[in-house]
Structures are given as C-alpha cells and as structure tokens.
Design brief:
heterodimer; A: flat; B: 4-stranded antiparallel beta sheet
Chain lengths: ~250, ~525
C-alpha cells in the first residue's frame, strides 16, 4: 500500500516536471510554434525578413573578405581569397590611383544586385501565401535599395501590399529589413586607409587601433609590393579585407 | 632607270621608317583607361590596354580621362584624392582637377556631435547628424584634428525624476533629454531635472537605489556601478559601495579611484580602466582575469600579451627576425646581425593589442627595416625604408655613416656597404648582379724566382689565404644577397669558395724580376 502510494507520487512528480517543461518550451518558442503551425497569419514584414535575411547575410559574408565585390575583376589572391585592389599602381615608387572612390555605395549596389532575384521570389511567395489563406492580394512593386548604416545594414522595399479578407483590409506601405552588422564602420576605416595609401603610400595601423578600441587591423605586405589590409571588429567578428599597391619597391634597386 | 632607283630608295626609306616607328612604339608606355587585367588608368604596354577602352601613347597624367584629381562624394561628404577622372565619374562621384582636394566642398572643420567630435567636411557633418539623430555644431575656426577631438564635450547630465505608474522614478539624462520627456508627458506632468545628481541620490526620493551590479558602457573604458533602476552611476570603486555621497553626485572619471596610474588591471576594487594605459572594461572571465571583482561581474582586463615568455603591454610594438624557421626576438634589436641579412630573411614588427600579438611583415627583400625604440620601458617600433642604394658610392666614413642620409656602414677601413644588405630576386635575370660586382677584387701576388728555381712570395701574399678569402666574402655578403652564405632557413647556398675565387695566369716578367699571379673573388 505504502509502495503504491510512493509510485503514484513519483508519477505525479514526473507529470508535473513534464508539464512545467512544456510550459517553458511554449513560453520560449511561442511565436515560432504559432507561426509554424499556422495558428496566425504572419506579419508580411516578418515574412519578408525571414525570407531574405539569410541571403543578405550570405552576400555580405562573401563580399567582405573580397574588398567589397562579389566577383572581383582585379584582385590579388591571398590565402584562397580573391581580394580586390581598391587602390593600385603597376609601377614602382609611385602612389596608387584609387580604384573604388565610393566604396560604401559600391557595396550597397553589389548587395542590391545580388539579392534582386530573391526579393522577387520572396514577394511572390508572400503573395501566394496570403492568397492561399483566402486573402485578396494586391502587391505594387516599387523600388528597393540597401543601405549601410551605423551598426546595421538596412534593406528598404518601397512596395505596397493590400490585403483584403471579408471586411478586414490592411495596407502595408513599406517593407524594411535591418540586420546588425558593423560593415559601415569598417568601410569608413577602409576608406580612410585608402586615402593615406593614395596620398602617402603607406598606413600606420596603430593609429586606428589606438582610436577604435574594438578594432583589429592587420597589414600584410606581399613580395611584389601589394599590401593586404584586414579589419576585424573584435566584438562581432565582422571583417573587411582589401588590397592596395602603392609606393612599391623593386628588389635590389 | 633613274626612276626605278628612286622608287627603290623610297620603299627602303619607308621600310626603315616603319621598322623604327614599331621599335619606338614598342618602348613607349601607353595610358590604358582600363587594362586587360582589370585595373583602371595605368601606364602600361600597348598590348595590355583593353581594346574596348581608350588608350594614348602618353602618361596617364597627360590625358583627360585618366588624370588624377579629387573625387567628391556628395552624398557622404567624403573627398578622395589621387582618383582618375574616369573612375570617379563612373562610380557616381564629382571630380575636380585639384588633386590636393583644396576645394570648398572638401574644406574640413570640427563637427561636434553629441559627446564626440570628428574633423570632417560640412556635408559629412550633416550626414553624421542624420545617421545618429543628433544635433551638430560645425566649427570652421578649429583647424586641426587634435584640437577638434579635444574640444569634444558632453552635455551636462543629471537625474531626470518623473512619476511612472504612481511611483516616483528616475532616469539619468541630459537636460535636453529630460525636457523632451517633459514635453512628451505634457506640461502638467511632474518631470524635474537635477543637474549633476545621480538617480540613486536619497534626497531625490525615487525608487532607484544603490546596487552591487556593474556594467561596461560603450565608448567608455571604465567599469560603472548601476543603480536598481538600471541607470549608470559612478566608476566602480569597492571602497565607496556604502558611501552615500558617492551614490548621490556624478563624479568625473578623473576624480575616481586610481585615475591615470596604470589602468587598474585585474583590480578587484577599482574599475577605473584606461584603454591607452592597457586596460578596458570586460565581463569577468576566470580564464583570462586574475581575480574576481568584489562587486559585480565586470573588471578592468589587462590587454597585454605574452610572447616567447616575455610580457608586453597593450600598444607596445617590437622588432623580430625570422631565423631558423621562426620569428625570434634578437638580443639587441637595432644591432645589425648576420641573421637579419640572410637571403630570404625579412624584418618583422610585432604589435601587442587586445591580448593578441599581430604580425606585420616589413617590405620583402629587406627594402624596409624594422627599427625599435624604448620610452620609459614602453617599446615602440616601425618598419621604414632601407636606404642602402647610395652606400657603394660613398668614399669616406663620415658620408658613409651619415644616418640622416643613408643606412650604411664603413667596412674594412676602405669600403662603404649597406648596413642592412638588400635582398635580390636572383631568379630574375640581371637582378642584383651589378651590385654584387662591386665586391670584385683583383689581387696581384708577386713572386720572386730564387736561385735553384724556387718561387717565394714577395707582395700580396695573403691573397691566397683562407682568411683573406673569408674577409672578401664578408664584404661581398654585405652588399646584398651576394657571395657565399646560408639562407634564412639555414640551407647552404649554391656557391662555394671555389666558385668565387679564381686564380689568374702567371705572368713572366721580361727581365729577371719576379712573376705575378692574379687572384680574385668574383
């Protein structure tokens, strides 16, 4: 009798633990569970964010070690990376000519170009998703652009989405995806280094590391005169890498 | 007949002219708007110019499309000199012929923005204002970056006390931010600003009280206490934890514990860290920090490094040599040692930043050398150009060893040689050979024929000695990657003394005098 009672208590305790665990899991993952089970209609902005953010991150991860270009045309191969020259001279003893004076804008264009097919697909999916849920959908596709901003990369879509289901009507006038990334800060430092490469021919990296406490700057001179610069944000691990050839010295002259 | 001869002459003349022109054009450098390998605006051989772009048989500086100038980014307000016109226009910039960027759009001033300052153009200052949502003050009267940075001041902060959910609470803000909060809440709202006070000040009567929690603040090096409402209080000082005054008024970092000493590395009791002194606020980590702080979870982390058993402070840099396959600290960094001049060797500079050693190679072929200095025990180093080129032209010790002009040393009492011998890419034809010839030496030994037919040496008798040969080889080595020496990995070179030393022919004199033997090192 006593043993039976103890067994029942054990079962109750186990049940209680399971219920509490389920409660915690539900609390932690409630929004995801809800949306994955289709309990609610997802916010279109979140839908687009979920659909595109991996692609944007992947694009950024490809272009940042390559000097800001997805497919560098003129590059130096270093540790299997194709690193684009942002300043270059083929001659000895001469200052380099800047090859990418508007680096930030170039990177923004590169990301915009790379994600355009995915943007179309994601908005197509968004339309069909809401149609499948019985909505009358009207999507007016305007322009979209990517901006590097302090501590974030923002993609803005000037698209208008109108949803109607019975008496319920909603209009979404702009979509926006913001991702945490310090590329803006790294590009600003790269631009400053480019300026000294083109005017002095070399850069003292300690100046930057003394001023920016969470920045690591590496400078690697190659035998033929190219210098590889690698900037790393020590907090986030974000990197930016580029090549320059300025005031190169020939061996033995 | 005469006509025929004339025609032949003209044809011959044309052929010669075409030949000469082709010879000249082969030598002339072209300005390629774009090269076949993708670079913009380079002086190159004609065949390396991309045929779809412009080219001219002149220097790029003389062309309209590739002339370097100033590229102005009207959106961001940045200026970039040494930018070819074609590149600037293509990327969407505004090009100006003034390569120094001495144009009104690029005029720099001091942009005071929030707590910070930047020496930038006015457009850039406005752009920063937009990006950070802060009001700006652009000062053209401040003419240097240093004075600009020093002029940055933060708005006075204090305690902004207000009622929230029937409770008197507080937020640490500036006067302006507090006014904005008041405007938001309405004129009748009870919002008061107490300049210089902390929210934990008992006299304010808010629900914010002292706590034993600390935090790191972005843009600040120090560890700060936080109150129970999450407001930043003063710098963490364990001895002031129960000091009501310390929790009542805002104290400057300079008034806090151990300011300006050593940055308080690993201090359990003081959080007055200083990045320039080698510490910064970080969350306590048992594996990295010596001891846990008495209160809170943050500490002044020592950012120094260890390398080959030696400790270096954050920010220190020092020179090393690559010898026997690894980077090694030389006993005397500025002393010229043989290992610094071996074929394939290179000077390196190591930097200690944020607990990490960063390796920076100086230019290869010893075209740059690493120099090191010390100030109050703090090591500073730099890679700088090796000025060896004029050494062999110097004919006296003073000129040779004039450190303001060149990096040379007077050797053997009669020769000026590079102090840090340059490297050559010996696999490329002609590289270095002419320089090594500077060590060639003819040495005529004079022998006298004795009665009985024996020869005895009378002059320059040591030219055949091993010591003379070794000395001459050392002179040869000092000029560059010349002569017989091991490389930086300790591998023997492909010359031995026999390759470098050649005995000449014996010259018999016409009279009864001694004969001569020509010996020399090449």
């Amino acid at each position: 009798m006593f043993m039976e009672k103890r067994g029942q208590i054990t079962i109750f305790i186990i049940l209680a633990i399971v219920i509490v665990a389920l409660g915690i899991l539900l609390y932690m993952f409630y929004p995801e569970i809800k949306s994955s089970l289709g309990f609610e209609d997802q916010n279109p902005n979140i839908f687009i964010q979920n659909c595109l953010q991996d692609k944007i991150q992947e694009t950024v991860d490809i272009l940042t070690p390559q000097g800001g270009s997805l497919d560098p045309e003129f590059y130096y191969t270093y540790q299997d990376d194709k690193i684009e020259y942002l300043c270059y001279t083929n001659e000895y003893y001469k200052l380099c000519s800047v090859q990418r004076p508007l680096l930030k804008e170039h990177i923004e264009k590169e990301i915009t170009k790379e994600i355009q097919d995915d943007v179309k697909e994601c908005f197509d999916e968004l339309e069909s998703s809401f149609r499948g849920k019985g909505y009358q959908v009207d999507l007016n596709r305007g322009v979209f652009y990517v901006e590097l901003l302090p501590k974030r990369i923002v993609s803005t879509f000037d698209y208008t989405l109108s949803l109607k289901k019975g008496d319920d009507a909603q209009v979404y006038e702009q979509f926006s995806i913001a991702m945490n990334n310090n590329l803006y800060e790294l590009v600003a430092i790269a631009t400053s280094i480019l300026d000294t490469e083109s005017t002095i021919g070399d850069t003292e990296i300690t100046t930057y590391m003394n001023y920016y406490t969470d920045l690591k700057v590496e400078k690697n001179k190659q035998s033929e005169g190219t210098t590889i610069y690698k900037l790393t944000d020590l907090n986030t691990g974000d990197i930016f890498q580029f090549a320059s050839r300025s005031i190169a010295w020939p061996p033995g002259y | 007949m005469k006509n025929k001869k004339g025609i032949i002459n003209i044809v011959m003349f044309l052929l010669v002219a075409v030949f000469l022109i082709s010879l000249i054009s082969a030598e002339v450098s072209y300005c390629c708007e774009k090269t076949t390998y993708g670079a913009w605006c380079q002086n190159e051989d004609q065949e390396k110019c991309d045929s779809e772009f412009q080219k001219s048989a002149t220097s790029c500086e003389a062309t309209s499309y590739c002339r370097n100038g100033c590229c102005y980014n009207s959106q961001e307000g940045n200026c970039m000199s040494n930018t070819p016109q074609r590149v600037c226009n293509q990327e969407g910039g505004v090009w100006s012929a003034d390569n120094t960027c001495d144009i009104p759009q690029c005029e720099l001033g001091c942009c005071l923005i929030g707590k910070q300052a930047a020496f930038v153009t006015q457009t850039r200052c406005k752009r920063l204002s937009n990006l950070y949502g802060l009001s700006i003050d652009f000062r053209t009267d401040i003419g240097s970056e240093l004075s600009c940075v020093l002029s940055a001041t933060s708005d006075v902060e204090g305690a902004c006390v207000f009622i929230k959910e029937f409770e008197k609470t507080c937020r640490r803000t500036t006067q302006k931010e507090c006014n904005e909060l008041k405007a938001k809440e309405g004129e009748d709202a009870e919002v008061d600003f107490y300049e210089g006070h902390l929210c934990s000040d008992e006299e304010l009567g808010t629900n914010c009280a002292p706590s034993d929690k600390t935090t790191c603040v972005e843009g600040d090096d120090a560890v700060f206490y936080i109150d129970t409402c999450g407001n930043i209080a003063n710098v963490y000082d364990a001895s002031k934890y129960e000091d009501k005054n310390y929790w009542a008024e805002i104290k400057d970092v300079s008034e806090s514990c151990n300011y300006g000493t050593d940055g308080n590395p690993n201090s359990r009791t003081c959080g007055n860290c200083d990045y320039l002194l080698g510490t910064t606020c970080k969350e306590y980590d048992r594996s990295k920090d010596a001891g846990a702080p008495n209160y809170g979870d943050n500490i002044c982390r020592d950012l120094g490094c260890k390398y080959e058993g030696q400790s270096y402070d954050h920010g220190e840099s020092f020179c090393v040599v690559f010898a026997q396959g690894k980077l090694t600290i030389a006993e005397d960094e500025n002393k010229n040692t043989e290992e610094k001049n071996l074929p394939g060797s290179r000077h390196f500079r190591l930097l200690c930043y944020n607990n990490e050693i960063i390796v920076e190679p100086c230019a290869d072929f010893r075209q740059e050398i690493c120099l090191q200095d010390e100030s109050n025990g703090f090591l500073v180093s730099a890679c700088r150009v090796n000025r060896w080129q004029e050494c062999i032209q110097q004919d006296n010790k003073d000129d040779c060893e004039n450190e303001n002009q060149r990096d040379c040393e007077w050797i053997g009492g009669d020769k000026c040689a590079p102090k840090y011998s340059p490297g050559f890419d010996f696999w490329a034809e002609g590289s270095g050979g002419d320089i090594c010839k500077g060590a060639d030496k003819d040495c005529k030994m004079v022998y006298e024929k004795r009665i009985g037919g024996d020869y005895t040496c009378e002059e320059n008798c040591d030219c055949d000695d091993e010591s003379w040969k070794r000395k001459k080889n050392e002179e040869c080595n000092s000029l560059g990657d010349c002569g017989m020496k091991e490389n930086y990995l300790g591998h023997e070179g492909y010359y031995d003394m026999g390759d470098l030393y050649e005995k000449g022919d014996i010259e018999e004199p016409d009279d009864e005098g001694g004969g001569g033997l020509l010996g020399g090192l090449f």
